[in-house]
């Protein structure tokens, strides 16, 4: 696949230098070391989510043995760990594989146009707009909009006397010591923020329109520590990783098959450990219709139990000078309001994509294996699991993409395009009912009823599909470039 005649023409361009992008670059460096690759990162630093988010207590809600890479053991003390530690892990991995030198920072891809032979990228850089070309494109930009989160406008916002903060843009100099803080939202960010804010705030009140399921687990993995004492480093990591994969899958399947049983278990656990009114933890949906929120070492439950934080359930009517007025008439007094109201989704970093001059709208395409878009050539997108660690799915996709590149090289073909059946019926590919998903549903790729157009939220099924199913499956169309690659 190499093209040595043009310094701006590459074999593979990876867009995004976060957890997925660095993983892609490391695998490429290991499996296809002769390919000319580059990572284009819009920001000034690698790390993605884990460098960008700076709100108090930022951490993973998945264990690092599965959120981390299979090829790079997580050696940290805690399996559920903080953002800076995850960012350090990403950076150290990039350096260990030598891919840090391939990152081009402050390179924002605004357009990708397929010309019949390769992708022509329009890239905004500090020196101005430039063009890059690549035969193959890997999109590792995550799923949310870095420009800002979902920020509904509440009546009376201008009347509130204190600061209104969205976690995505947390001020470094914000001091909440001795202050009353109201946190609007019931998702993972709110559950993460509450224990951290409660350490020094006068009181923290979570305002939730709809309850969510919250469970706890130890931040330290006792079995992982045992395995690390009796097994070699990589073997211990692999065994721990599989343990956590299978336990997570088991709990998800239990939730799907016996939702009432799991609902009761979660409710009983919350009441026992927090002493809170169980109605605040009784969602109107089944477990895993939305992601469960995780409280490492039960920190969220502890602040509810000791009284440094509390929850109220109800819709916001308006902001007032002294706080937040609910539709019920209750006034939640506050000096600071945090609007943990969710993310805005944005696929492929918002870049414009065209094939042969025709715009590509992901919501109008089927997802091939959850890795490519129908009728879009040489274009792989990473999108992780909604019911497990993000990286588990991304790494399967990336390893499969390398299999695809190997096959193309072996067969002397230039282009791989998944072609959907004409009679395929499209339906949403992401099963969650979460607000950020529903708001973006029309823009997300669809799925069909049959493989390989069915998106599985199941690691074992995907492992078979990505590792064992043949690359030439009757759906993937292989062809030669229609114009010279050096044109």
From TrEMBL:
The keyword Cell division does not apply. Gene3D superfamilies: FAD/NAD(P)-binding domain. Keywords: FAD, Flavoprotein, Monooxygenase, NADP, Oxidoreductase. GO terms for molecular function: flavin adenine dinucleotide binding; N,N-dimethylaniline monooxygenase activity; NADP binding. It comes from the Bacteria. Its cofactor is FAD. Transmembrane segments: none annotated. Belongs to the FAD-binding monooxygenase family. This is NAD(P)/FAD-dependent oxidoreductase. It comes from Pontivivens ytuae. The lineage of its organism: Bacteria, Pseudomonadati, Pseudomonadota, Alphaproteobacteria, Rhodobacterales.
């Amino acid at each position: 696949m190499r093209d040595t005649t043009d310094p701006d023409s590459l074999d593979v361009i990876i867009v995004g230098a976060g957890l997925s992008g660095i993983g892609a670059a490391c695998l490429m460096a290991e499996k296809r070391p002769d390919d000319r690759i580059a990572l284009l990162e819009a920001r000034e630093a690698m790390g993605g989510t884990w460098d960008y988010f700076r709100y108090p207590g930022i951490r993973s809600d998945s264990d690092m043995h599965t959120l981390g890479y299979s090829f790079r053991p997580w050696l940290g003390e805690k399996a559920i760990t903080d953002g800076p530690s995850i960012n350090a892990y990403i950076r150290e991995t990039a350096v260990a594989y030598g891919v840090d030198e391939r990152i081009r920072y402050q390179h924002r891809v605004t357009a990708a146009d397929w010309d019949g032979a390769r992708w022509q990228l329009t890239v905004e850089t500090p020196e101005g707009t430039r063009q890059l070309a690549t035969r193959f494109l890997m999109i590792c930009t995550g799923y949310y909009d870095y420009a800002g989160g979902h920020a509904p406008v509440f009546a009376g916002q201008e009347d509130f006397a204190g600061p209104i903060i969205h976690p995505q843009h947390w001020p470094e100099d914000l001091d909440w010591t001795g202050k009353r803080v109201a946190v609007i939202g019931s998702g993972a960010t709110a559950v993460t923020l509450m224990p951290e804010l409660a350490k020094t705030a006068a009181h923290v009140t979570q305002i939730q329109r709809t309850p969510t399921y919250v469970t706890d687990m130890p931040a330290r993995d006792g079995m992982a520590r045992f395995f690390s004492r009796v097994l070699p480093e990589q073997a211990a990591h692999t065994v721990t990783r599989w343990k956590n994969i299978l336990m997570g899958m088991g709990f998800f399947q239990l939730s799907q098959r016996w939702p009432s049983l799991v609902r009761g278990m979660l409710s009983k656990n919350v009441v026992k450990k927090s002493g809170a009114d169980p109605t605040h933890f009784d969602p109107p949906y089944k477990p895993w219709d939305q992601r469960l929120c995780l409280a490492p070492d039960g920190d969220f439950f502890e602040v509810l139990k000791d009284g440094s934080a509390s929850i109220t359930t109800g819709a916001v009517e308006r902001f007032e000078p002294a706080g937040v007025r609910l539709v019920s008439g209750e006034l939640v007094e506050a000096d600071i309001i945090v609007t943990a109201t969710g993310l805005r989704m944005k696929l492929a970093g918002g870049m414009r994509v065209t094939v042969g001059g025709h715009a590509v709208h992901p919501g109008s395409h089927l997802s091939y294996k959850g890795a490519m878009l129908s009728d879009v050539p040489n274009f792989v997108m990473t999108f992780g699991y909604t019911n497990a660690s993000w990286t588990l799915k991304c790494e399967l996709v990336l390893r499969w993409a390398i299999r695809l590149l190997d096959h193309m090289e072996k067969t002397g073909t230039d282009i791989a395009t998944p072609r959907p059946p004409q009679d395929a019926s499209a339906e949403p590919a992401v099963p969650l009912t979460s607000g950020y998903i529903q708001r973006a549903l029309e823009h997300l790729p669809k799925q069909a009823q049959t493989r390989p157009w069915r998106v599985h939220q199941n690691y074992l099924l995907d492992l078979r599909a990505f590792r064992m199913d043949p690359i030439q499956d009757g759906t993937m169309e292989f062809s030669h470039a229609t114009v010279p690659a050096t044109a």
